[in-house]
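Moderator note: this is an archived Q&A kept for reference. The question asked for a predicted structure of one protein chain; the sequence and the answer are reproduced below.
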Amino acid sequence: MNQPTAIVTGGTRGIGLAIVQKLISAGYNVATLARSEATSEEFTELLDTGRLYFLLGDITDSSARETLVDETIARYGQIDLLCNNAGTGPATRLDILEMPLESYDRVMDVNLRGPLLLTQQVAKLMIENTPRNPGGQRGIIVNTGSASATMVSTNRGEYCISKAGVSMATKLFAIRLAEYGIPVYEVSPGIIRTEMTKVVTAKYDKYILEDGNCPIARWGEPEDVAEAVMVLAEGRLKYSTGDIIYVDGGMRIPTL
C-alpha cells in the first residue's frame, strides 16, 4: 500500500503544525497551505524529511486552492485525508454592535467559505479513490471547529458565526458523502494555547484556573487536538460521520 496523503491547511504553527507532525510521524505524506512563511525549527525539520509539501498562499484564493490540490495529486497520487484547519479571529475584538463589515467578511472567508470550497474540490477527487481499507473508506475529512460555535463571545461575533457555520458544513458534507464511504467529522477545541489565544492569556488563566470552568483544569495544547485528529485519521470510527469530537477539558458541560 502506498503511503497515505493528507492536506492540512494552516499547518505551519499551532494546532495545524501539531497535526502535521503527528501525521508525518504516522507515515503520511502531507501538503499544507499557509499565508505566511514558516520559520520555526520544527517546521523546517519536517520539510527536511521530504514528506512535506508547503505552499505559500491564502485559503480564500481559488488559485491557491487549485495549486494545493493539483500539486498534492502530482506528488503523491491521491488525497486520503483533508484537515480544514486554517482559521483566523478578528484583528480587533469589538462589540458586535461595532463589528466592521470588513472584519466579518475576512473571518467568514477564511474560516468558512475557503474551507467549504476546498472540501468541494477534494471530495470530488476522493470519490474517485480506491478504498484503502476493508471498511470501504475512500477518504476522511476533518474540520477544525471551536467551542465558540455554541458559546457566545459578543466581542468576536464574526468568529462565533463562522464556527457555527463550520458545524453545519460538517453535517452537510457528512450526509452528502456517506454513500461514497467518506466520513466527515468536526474536532471542536476549547481553550488551546496558540498565537490566537496569547493576547487573552490572563483572561483564560482566570477562566480555567480560578473560576473552575474546565473540569480538566489546564490549558489545552495543540497536541491535544492533533491526537483527536489522529483517532479520526486512522479510520477506526467506521460507523460514525457528522460527529463532533470535543477537545475542551469538559468546558462545554453545563453545571450548577
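Archived answer notes: The chain has one domain: 5-127+136-247.
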